[in-house]
Write a structure and sequence with these properties.
The protein is mainly β. It has helices at residues 2-20, 90-96, and strands at residues 24-27, 32-35, 44-48, 53-60, 63-67, 74-78, 82-84, 123-133, 138-146, 149-157, 162-174, 177-191, 193-198, 208-209, 215-233, 237-262, 273-297, 302-319, 322-342. The longest helix is centred in the first third of the chain and has 19 residues, at 2-20.
Length: 368
């Protein structure tokens, strides 16, 4: 029995020495978060009070892996939030952790520190009223046999400026690069001009010239997929250059085949149109858009800004037995409105504890 005890005694002494050398850290401030992983955005496992002692299990750059002796909960805490007490050093604890990856693999390079000009926000949101100019005029032509001759009609749809709204946002993907989306809605009404001629029902080779027009409408809902490069302009401004594919849902007034009628009666000398057989045709158009956005922020998150965008997408509306109607969706857009900046989460370093008060020295009264 004594021999067995003598053999176990060195082992127990070594184990006790290892346990005694375990490092301990002391929490500096109240409400210090103990997190589930080494990240400032991970879930909070426990909130610790100032002066609480924790067992140091591991070290990972700016974080310690610790255990609360009372609750037995383990987690990660910022190195700056605690004070390392006598025991195994933090470097020693870090040296004990097994190397990641294959044996002999080089350790991962540390992340690049932020530089001047880096965009550090998480994302942004914009809401604008917009004015769209530069829309393209287009026309619709038709011809068909009538009274042993051929009717020829041209319907001109004029270009017209209009207004609408724009809403968008983006999320930072890498450094100053963001991916986002924008939605625009534009609606316009117009009066067409009809020209051409219709055969005279009484006489050959005496066509009736057409004149007049009718009301038409054009509604466009645009979806803009964007890749943006955001440039901070301290202290309060921000510039973003963006571009990407644009998808439009276009609803356009289109004249159906042989859809123009005359208001005149005998002797059929007036060519004023009496009616137009139209329909509201819908089509999806895919194109491209690019632009720039400039913002000025009154606070850390709220500001105003302006946007300039040019986008274009061709749409073709088929008409049975007649040439298709070719329309260009989009145009040159200028707008202004609200800007909201979404800041990245901060590490939330705790305030350093107040220095200990030095005791006042009471001097003895001097003898006269």
């Amino acid at each position: 029995m004594f021999k067995r005890i003598s053999l176990l005694l060195p082992v127990l002494i070594c184990a006790g020495a290892v346990a005694a050398s375990a490092a301990t850290v002391r929490v500096k401030a109240d409400r210090t978060p103990l997190r589930a992983s080494a990240s400032a955005t991970s879930a909070v496992v426990l909130e610790l009070k100032a002066g609480v002692l924790l067992d140091l299990l591991d070290a990972d750059r700016d974080w310690y892996k610790v255990r609360d002796p009372q609750s037995k909960k383990e987690g990660f805490i910022l190195v700056s939030s605690v004070e390392l007490l006598p025991g195994t050093s933090a470097q020693g604890a870090a040296a004990k952790q097994p190397p990641a990856g294959k044996p002999g693999a080089k350790p991962a390079a540390p992340p690049r520190p932020p530089k001047k000009g880096d965009w550090r926000d998480r994302g942004y949101i914009s809401v604008n009223g917009i004015f769209e100019a530069g829309t393209s005029a287009f026309s619709q032509t038709q011809s068909w046999p009538s009274f042993a001759e051929t009717a020829n009609v041209n319907i001109a749809f004029p270009a017209k400026d209009s207004s609408g709204f724009d809403i968008g946002g983006g999320f930072r993907l890498w450094r100053n690069m963001a991916v986002g989306i924008g939605i625009t809605a534009i609606s316009r009404s117009m009066t067409t001009t009809v020209s051409g001629s219709l055969p005279n029902p009484l006489y050959l080779n005496r066509p009736i010239p057409l004149s007049g027009g009718f009301d038409a409408s054009d509604n466009q809902l645009g979806l803009h997929l964007q890749v943006a490069w955001v440039v901070p302009m301290p202290p309060k401004m921000q510039l973003a250059l963006f571009g990407g594919p644009s998808i439009f849902s276009v609803k356009q007034t289109v004249v159906q085949a042989q859809g123009i009628g005359l208001a005149s009666a005998y002797p059929f000398e007036s060519g004023s149109i009496s009616s137009a057989h139209t329909t509201e045709a819908s089509k999806t158009a895919i194109g491209f858009g690019a632009g720039v956005d400039v913002a000025y922020f009154f606070t850390r998150t709220i500001g105003v800004g302006g946007i300039v965008r040019f986008t274009r997408a061709p749409a073709s509306f088929p008409v049975a037995g007649q040439p298709s109607v070719e329309v260009n969706a989009g145009g040159f857009q200028v707008g202004a409105g609200l800007r909201v900046r979404i800041p990245a989460p901060s590490a939330g370093k705790p305030k350093p504890p107040a220095p200990p008060k030095t005791p006042l020295k009471i001097e003895a009264p001097k003898k006269k």
